[in-house]
Amino acid sequence: MDAGLATILIVDDSPENLAVLSELLQTDYRVRAATSGDKALRVVKTAPKPDLILLDVMMPEMDGYEVFARLRADTETRDIPVIFVTAMDSTEAEIRGLDVGAVDYIAKPIVPPILRARVHTQLELKQARDWLANQNAYLEVELARRMSENLAVQDVSIHALAHLAEIRDPETGNHLRRTQGYVHALAEQLANHPRFRDFLNPRAIDLLVKSAPLHDIGKVGIPDHILLKAGKLTPEEWDIMKTHAKLGRDAIEQAERDVDRPLDFLVMAKDIAHYHHERWDGGGYPEGLAGDAIPIAARLMALADVFDALISQRVYKPPMSFEDAYTIIAAGRGTHFDPDVVDAFIARFDEFCQIAIRYGEAETAALAQRQGLAAASG
C-alpha cells in the first residue's frame, strides 16, 4: 500500500458495517478497523497513526461518546479529527456529536458519495491544519534562533565597546567582569525590596548586567596624558577626567539615534554611564543629583565601581584589603551611597569577595590569599 496514503480508523461493533465502510474507502485510503471502543483506543496508539477516525456512536460497553472523550483527554490522540457515524438520525443526536467536538456527523444508512466527500474534506482540512502547525513550529524555532543571534550580537557589541575604554586604561584588567558581578549581586538582593522591586524585575536585572560594562565608555574621549598619568591629577586635569561621564552618555545617545526604535539596554547603559559618579548626598558629578533623583541602575553601579577601585592596584596606590574597602563603603551609607544599596552590599559582601578573587588581578588574588592566611592564623 502506498506509504503516502492517509490512514482512516473505522470503529464499529458490527462486522457488516466495517466491511461496507472498508470497501468504500480502501481504494483511496489505508483503512484500519476496530470492533469496540476499547480496541479502538489500543489501535490508535499503534503505527500507522490514523489521520481520521470514523466512530460509531451506539456500541456496547463503551459508546462512541465515551471513546471520543478518552481520545480528547490523551495528548497523543486529542488532535485526530473524528466523524461520528450513527443510525440515530435526529437533529438532537447530530447537535450533541458536534457539540462535543466531532468534525462531522454522518447518519446511516451510508450514502457512498456523501461519505467519500466528507472524508475527503476532513482529510484536506487536517492536512491544512498540520501544515499550519508545522509552519508555526518552524517560525517559533526560527524566531528563537534569530533572537538568540541578536542577543549574542548585542552582547558582543557591548563588550567590544566597553573594551575600547579598557584597552586605553591598562590598569582596569578584569574590572568589567567584576563590576558586572557586583551589580548582579546587588540587584538580586534588592529585587524584593519595596523601593526597588517595581524596577528590578528579571528583565531589568538582565539589562542592567549587560549594560554595566559600558559605564566607563566615555574614557575613550579622555586624552592619554590625563587618562594614563602615573601621579595625582591636577584640579584642571580632574575636571577633564570627570567629563568622561557626559562623553559616555553622548556616545550612547548617538548610537540610539542610529536605530529605528528605543533599545532598553541602551537607555539603561546611558543612565549608568552618565550618573554612576553621582552621590546620594548630591556631592557627585556631572549634575550633582541627589537621592532618588539618581537612576537606580547608576546607584548600584556607583557602589560597585568604588568597591572595585578600592581593592584594585593602581600606579598611585596599592590594593586595599577587602575589610578596609568594606569599612569605607559602610561609612558612605547615606552620604556617598543609597543606604539600602549599602545594606545590600553588606548582605552580599562574601559574594563580592568571591567575585573579586575569581576575576581578580594577580595582586588582588595574592592579597586575598594573605588575608585568608592571616584570618586562619588569628
UniProtKB/TrEMBL annotation:
Output the GO biological process annotations, alphabetical, semicolon-separated.
phosphorelay signal transduction system
Identify residues that carry 4-aspartylphosphate. 56
PANTHER family membership = CYCLIC DI-GMP PHOSPHODIESTERASE TM_0186-RELATED, CYCLIC DI-GMP PHOSPHODIESTERASE VC_1348-RELATED
Q: Identify the InterPro entries for this entry.
A: CheY-like_superfamily, Cyclic_di-GMP/3'3'-cGAMP_PDE, HD/PDEase_dom, HD_GYP_dom, Sig_transdc_resp-reg_receiver
Q: Which domain of life is it from?
A: Bacteria
- Domain called HD-GYP: residue spans: 150-361
Identify the keywords attached in UniProt to this record, alphabetized.
Phosphoprotein
Domain Response regulatory span(s) in chain numbering? 7-123
- Full protein name: Putative two-component system response regulator
Provide the GO MF annotations for this entry.
Answer: phosphoric diester hydrolase activity
